[in-house]
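Internal ticket #5521
Category: modeling
Description: The requester needs a full-assembly model to guide mutagenesis choices. All entity lines are attached below as received. Residue total reported by intake: 576.
Assigned to: D.W.
Attached entities:
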Amino acid sequence: MIPTIETHEQVMFFDTDCGGVVHNIAYLRWIETARTRLADHLGLPLREMSESKRFPVVLRTEIDYRSPAKLSDTVRVRGRLDAIEGIRFWCAFELHRDDDETLLVSSRQALALIQMPEGKPMRLPEAWAEHYPELMVRPRRKKH
Amino acid sequence: MIPTIETHEQVMFFDTDCGGVVHNIAYLRWIETARTRLADHLGLPLREMSESKRFPVVLRTEIDYRSPAKLSDTVRVRGRLDAIEGIRFWCAFELHRDDDETLLVSSRQALALIQMPEGKPMRLPEAWAEHYPELMVRPRRKKH
Amino acid sequence: MIPTIETHEQVMFFDTDCGGVVHNIAYLRWIETARTRLADHLGLPLREMSESKRFPVVLRTEIDYRSPAKLSDTVRVRGRLDAIEGIRFWCAFELHRDDDETLLVSSRQALALIQMPEGKPMRLPEAWAEHYPELMVRPRRKKH
Amino acid sequence: MIPTIETHEQVMFFDTDCGGVVHNIAYLRWIETARTRLADHLGLPLREMSESKRFPVVLRTEIDYRSPAKLSDTVRVRGRLDAIEGIRFWCAFELHRDDDETLLVSSRQALALIQMPEGKPMRLPEAWAEHYPELMVRPRRKKH
């Protein structure tokens, strides 16, 4: 079973801008929240992190804005572990408007486990390869 | 029955700062969220607002920071209608850590109903005086 | 000479909401920025803080919203040390629209110097009493 | 001459998190600010937008986090028009620490000109093709 989570966010005034729609920073805040809950499912709970100083650090974010959310919309954020690639792992997110199932935003984030404050990248838990063999991908040479 | 609401917020990384505690802006965001839900209870729903352009506008915010919240704390925000004072009304908020009931933040906000885009203040609903007579206070001369 | 600072902020999309005006959280962010620069003038530089873990911690914020700023306005934030009251000091802020000098927001914040992570309050620098005798006020009993 | 801009941001407490480094949302806020100034250089000034309701809307954001910024760092944000691709245009951003020229973040954003509230995409100004022929690229089939 691929780890997945679902969160729900109601659009507040401070999430919108004077164009009448939700601004880019609000979507990223919701994605960050969903990713934190997903990390919890992956055995990387927030409370432990603040003690062990072992943090999942985001290396790259990709966000596609497909349709705008508006004031008072309820937004469903679905996140899942998407790929395991050497010492990096990818999470994928889809944000839909609850009412009419419109796809609002899709996003992928690449992460690594980092030991702070040294900033040293660590191996991912070995159990992941066992539990999610379908997610294993060969590390690509970085193109960006 | 005085209108009250209760919301819950889990402290995320972006809510904390490098001092290791939740920063002032995060508390205000949670208070704004709680006040929006309280306005819903008061018969001022978000969805209608965006159509009628009749918004509850904050005139004044007072926040006392009493004890810091930390990463992964769950914070309970309690809000209530606190006073009705001419064309202004006050909401009061208390934020506690869920685990140990520590009072983190207390806050009051004064609001008025404003018709946008003219910015004209409107009378408060007459039903409020009937339903919440214990909240009626004589308008003070502004001291600030 | 009372320590004062002045900062300038241009209103961005993410500072506004769908009511067409700047939202409360944006004003607080600008005030926090101004206060940090004011602390620098007061001999409490940001860089040292992150090393000494001695932080000026906000105890109370009061904000009066007087007139709304709009997209593309330039906002001038003026801050000053306003009062010294035992182990607390007050900073005062006024935000004006640059174009027409409209007063947008006024604010006061009470702070104390705290040694982290213990959270122990410290005496204010003795030089302050000497340099700013006109700002010394007798500590009040807390009313809130 | 390719349109470019440069902005400078000082890292504030609220930009950092309890991991001791700047959080992802702060980088995006700085990029949004830089892009707004870049739009101004491109003949899409903020003040006009709020009147004409013709907004440059972000379709996609890509951010690579390369090295973390810390409290009190000054961050230089350089932005430029990067490519013109049918009705889309790409802006590119690089964020460096001012002190030591460390590359912190690189980012690209794809935008289109949208007439609000209809949400209709518009042709890009014809002058762009003349002025920046080296930026013209053939529209790709969308792969994401």
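Resolution: model delivered.
Comment from assignee: Chain A is about 20% helix and 40% strand.
Ticket closed.
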